[in-house]
Here is the input.
Amino acid sequence: MKMWSGRFRQPLNPEFESWQRSFPFDKQLLSEEVAASSAYAAALEKLRILSPAEYKQTVDALHALESDAAKNPAILNDEEAEDVHHFVERELVKRIGEAGYKLHSGRSRNEQIATDLRLFVRAQIDVTVALLAELAQAFVSCAAEAGEAEMPAYTHLQRAEPVLVAHWLLAYVEMFLRDADRLKDCRERLNECPLGSGAIAGSTLPLDRKAMTKQLNFDAPTANSMDATSDRDFAIEFTQVLALLGVHLSRWAEEQIIFCTQEFGFVKLPESFSTGSSAMPQKQNPDLLELVRGKSARLMANSQAMLTNMKGLALAYNKDLQETQIPIFDSAQTATAMLRQSAGYMREVQFDFARMKSAAQAHSMNAFAAATYLARKGVAFRRAHEVVGAAVRLCMDKGCELEALPLEELKSLNPVFEKDFYEAVKLQAVLDCHDVVGGTARERVKSALADTKQRIAKLRGGAVYAHT
Ligand code: ARG
Here is the structure.
């Protein structure tokens, strides 16, 4: 039986009937639907709409349905079910008879889907935060392994200054920790229970909303039934945070792709995460990285689809909202897989530290430090910049580095140059002169690494998986 057929005289157009169904995708909300329905059944029992026996039958049947579906997903191939709510009702009636129809007393699918989606997004946030912690940990392990290895850092993709490899890796960890923070922030805001909001105006039954809220581990009942039944802000925020996470992963992937080219040769691609070419036998392609970069486009598109879907909807529920499920599911699944894959890659990837080091010592990357040397000796930085610029010009003509210029030649540019200049422009000294919080001086990076480890441990400690 349909959930709404009483007032209809004509059957639905068969193609429309199947086209408007959401069960093909919202079947993945079954466990959320069972959890929410169990809480609702308890509220109905309190009102004596369900007898204690009916309540027990209902809840037992709901849980049996969930475990049956886990064991045998074929039972989800129900061509008649319009959506997951209808499916559960049909199964309840199959299992406990007429009493199965009582569960929908005073209830609307509008509040059910709003509740299921909050439960779903909440659980996905917990999973995603845990995966972000894993990924961050994989980066930190690489950073620890890199020790004091050096590399060139780029601005405009031109060699800029040397940094520690660990410093570079920790830059990504900052992004991931912010992503985790944003997810947790979104979780806090979404953690309100819509049950009792009815179709739009609030339930017609005096339900104990606080009890349902508690049973589902929400913090409070939603404050307004019109908002609660039509709000998808939490899902918009979720997909937006994942879109930004996608941007971070995509930047990282792009950089790895550049660094693993023969031209750079900084990164040795793990074979376990690469593929070959059917035509060119010598090739090893960075498919994992390319797919991470490519899939980030889906995360961005999904968040845009959410916004576009919502922008023209008058209050409250509109069937357009059914379409928002697809980007929510897709983003959750896409981001989860990207994080798992990226962490797997980071555990295997190797760096060519020797090559990175020699690149860090070429192309006058110590010029900024050289100008700072003069500034420390009292030369105005603008002047120092000009002097070192002239020295770099000399090096370019000669095909050498600053430290290869004889002292007399340097002195002819500015008499302030002394022998200690050669110490000041050595690689380690150049790193260590960036001795500020957040800088690449070796001691600073050491303490940044320790601090980052602590923040990750805290994040791991706080992860919750269950949605009930
Ligand atoms: N499958 C629907 C959705 O996802 C459930 C809500 C249906 N409500 C309605 N008034 N038709 O949006």
